[in-house]
Amino acid sequence: MLAAYALRGLKAGAVAGVGFALFVALVASPLVAVAEERAGHHDEHAADGEHTGEAAHAHEAISAGPLSVSTAALSTVTNLLGGLGWGLLLGLGFGVAYYFLEPAVPGSGDASVYLLGAAGLLTVSGAPWLAVPPQPPGVEGAPLETRGLRYGLALAAGAAACLASGALYGRLTTAGRGRFVAAGAAALPLAALLALPGLSPPVGGAGPLVAAYRGVVLAGQVGLWLVLTTAFARLHRRGLDRDATAAAAPTAAAAD
Predict the structure, then answer these.
(1) pLDDT digits (tens, 9 = 90+) for 94-108
(2) What is the pTM of this model?
């Protein structure tokens, strides 16, 4: 049974990964290239004039050659493979998580799949980004080790908040409280995550490029999780229907 859930997750992750890889290659990567180019121009203007001119001419000579073409092609292939791999990893994790958490997730059928997908988005991306906002290349931020630690702590906080929210909702509905009351109480652990930005010192960069970059990153992750959960819900529903048909076949044969 676990293998079936994991396989559905891998299939859904493959679909989502292909879409995410295309999004990265066609939308996100060009934006990163623009950010890197602006950062490079900023560094050049800060240097000595003669040295800047020589560096610019050298850069133009390199970018005009075949090396830049092969580098761009390699970067595109890397982005495609990376997006597909990330989708497969998320899909596998989602399928396994749904197998163990399905009885505890509120709702039934597709609703429980989408709800767990929203919790996954909040855990993997939402909560960590509150503590460590995505920064484009060239924008000053905290050291890598510090960002990694904050990301891990925020991810754990997001997972704990989602688990606490689900447990609280289940306990209140079991006790006979109304769904709206239970949903309002279950939102409290999630609201506590809004304190995460205050745990990190402010970082530089608040211009339109930074805002556009963060918007693209957010759109990519939301799209990835939406496609993943939609594909998984469809595959899971088909699997349940197939299992029900297989279980009903011996009964029908015995009746005949």
Answers:
(1) 999 999 999 989 888
(2) 0.82
Instruction: Report how far residue 162's alpha carbon sits from residue 134's, in angstroms, rounded to the nearest whole number.
Output: 22
Residue 185 included in any domain: yes
pLDDT in tens, 16-28: 999 999 999 888 8
Give CA separation, 117 vs 225, 246, 250, in Å: 6, 29, 36
Does the residue 228 lie in any domain? yes
7, part of any domain: yes
Instruction: DSSP for 144-195, please give it.
Output: HHHHHHHHHHHHHHHHHHHHHHHHHHHHHHHTT--HHHHHHHHHHHHHGGGG
Q: Which residues form the domain of 199?
A: 2-24+81-248
Contact 29, 79 (CB under 8 A): yes
3-state SS, residue 201: coil
Distance separating alpha carbons of residues 178 and 90, to the nearest angstrom? 34
**Nearest Cα to 18, choosing from 75, 120, 91?**
91
